[in-house]
Amino acid sequence: MKTKITELLGIEYPIVQGAMAWIAEHHLAAAVSKAGGLGIIAGGAAPVDVIREEIRQARAITDKPLGMNIMLLSPNADDLAQLAIDEKIEVLTTGAGNPGKYMADWKNAGIKVMPVVASVALAKRMARAGADAVIAEGMEGGGHIGELTTMPLVPQVVDAVDIPVIAAGGIADGRGMAAALLLGAEGVQCGTVFLASDECCISEKYKELVLKATDISTVVTGRPSGHPVRSLKTPMARKCLELEKANTEQSLEELEAATAGSLRKAVQDGNYEEGTFMSGQIAGMLHELRPCADILQGMTAQAEELLRHAYKRFE
Ligand code: TUI
Hints:
By secondary structure, this protein is α/β, with parallel strands linked by helices. The protein has two domains: about 5-200 and about 290-315, TIM Barrel, CATH 3.20.20.70; about 205-280, no CATH class. About 45% of the residues lie in helices and about 15% in strands. The strands form two sheets. An eight-stranded parallel sheet has the order 1-9-8-6-5-4-3-2. Helix 8 crosses helix 14 and helix 11 (about 235-245) packs antiparallel against helix 12. The chain is globular and about 55 Å long. Bound molecules: ligand TUI. Ligand TUI binds next to strand 5 and strand 7.
């Protein structure tokens, strides 16, 4: 499938693997890039040396284009911004903020820059600042989210900017991909679907919870603190909601202590009681583990089939 995004990035399928902190390391990113999508290594809050090694490991597996993500709330965002230049990363995505101050340096280094945006206003600013594309992410997605859902966000961003738009949030099969393309997107970014992939190196417990999830298994915590996060409804998420509701100095301190390191506890330890298992609403549709190559091929083939024959439904 050829779109402005496959052309821009030099990839086969217009599918970007969302950067997921602690999760999107070299096995996953290299598998997606090797299979013809764009794999992304998540910077997260990891030390620069760790991410440099992840990039090099991914390069040892594939010489196809590779992306890296910088989570702008991260304390080491400045160092990761330089690392991307030093390691000649082809594509950078950013999340959870405005990457404006880095844009000129990245563009000078020849890096393709695709900020994640959750509003039309930021999309316009990013286009003006020289972004090559924007990723419009709806709040159906997992992890840190904005206010709008994918359906209204994507066409409004498409109308507002002249650069290609990638749709994200709630997309995990060819139906979602076809819908995104009809809304005017040139590609999709998916995170949750890759949690259910063979190459994703997360705890067995995390995969089990994603496969067992239903449509109503996720919840948003962190709204009062201004950093809303979607995750599976586990004991930790319930505890966060209770502490937020109490809203006392003591409960908010307890909340901060409980959430520190809780994503790592989910990803690495499979700690059901204390882990934060970030996931999008689409987890309810995932019932089996598949190789990344199958996910990319299956999604694209289904989208092509639907788009080619859609008119027949209304004859
Ligand atoms: O960044 C994400 N998703 C993430 S980051 C993350 S790590 C984390 N861990 C614990 C607490 C918080 C985060 C897990 N998931 N997605 C991209 C994204 N960016 N979604 C929404 C936004 C966003 C929101 C507001 C981008 C910009 C923005 O406004 C910035 C501005 O200045 O207008």
